[in-house]
Amino acid sequence: MRTIAIISQKGGAGKTTLAIHLAAAAAESVALIVDTDPQATASRWGEWRKGADPEIIDCGAPTLLAGKLSKAAELGGELAVIDTPPHADAMARQAARLADLILVPCRPKAFDLAAIEATAELVKASHKPAFVVLMAGPPRAPLIYQEAADVIEGSFGLQLAPVMLPERAAFHHSTAQGRTADEFDHDGKAACESRWWKRTAISSGGKVWWSIQ
Ligand SMILES: Nc1ncnc2c1ncn2[C@@H]1O[C@H](COP(=O)(O)OP(=O)(O)OP(=O)(O)O)[C@@H](O)[C@H]1O
Ligand SMILES: [Mg+2]
Known about the structure:
Elements: E1 2-6, H1 15-25, E2 31-35, H2 41-48, E3 55-58, H3 62-74, E4 79-83, H4 89-98, E5 101-106, H5 110-126, E6 130-134, H6 142-155, E7 159-160, H7 169-176, H8 181-184, H9 189-194, H10 196-199, E8 202-204, E9 207-210
Parallel strand pairs: 1-4, 1-5, 2-3, 2-4, 5-6, 6-7
Antiparallel strand pairs: 8-9
The site of magnesium ion (MG) has 5 residues, from helix 1.
């Protein structure tokens, strides 16, 4: 089972939105979300969609995470996406330790970029492949994205994912109804952008870290 940890110490960075859309984009695999956040946002979303895939598994303590992942793999899970809480070092570290790949959602805004320093250190200490996914930025603002890339790659030494989910109302409306952007408006821009996960591989140094195929 492949395991992706979604980590950002900053609240509201887009962790749960990314976890939901990534797991849903991988629906051809047996994908599940492990909700390690006491706020239980992903679990609530799962209730709103009345149990439709992806399955959501709760995990309340870092010491339980390895066991939950093993159980999911035994039951046929092929992809686990771990949604982590903000400001929670122990859970974020454990998720990073158990993941094959780490994604760090971040808004392309000065304060948000400055705040990923702590997450960058945590991620680097794990020695796992890690990529920043820019979330909820303006759809067309090349200068903002260039500046964000300079900070992420230049100052923090993290890699930028080739996929982002720009600011779209459909991400808000769809999740509020227990749906994904794709289910909410299949032909809309948010749906199209969330399907990028299906056709975009994440690679570096000649190695493909993520591909849905
Ligand atoms: N690409 C986007 N476009 C529009 N709204 C977005 C986008 N990404 C996230 N949001 C909105 O931003 C808010 C925070 O997102 P989300 O809950 O995914 O962040 P989080 O990092 O999981 O927060 P927390 O740290 O509290 O767990 C939500 O209202 C969500 O709908
Ligand atoms: Mg969340």
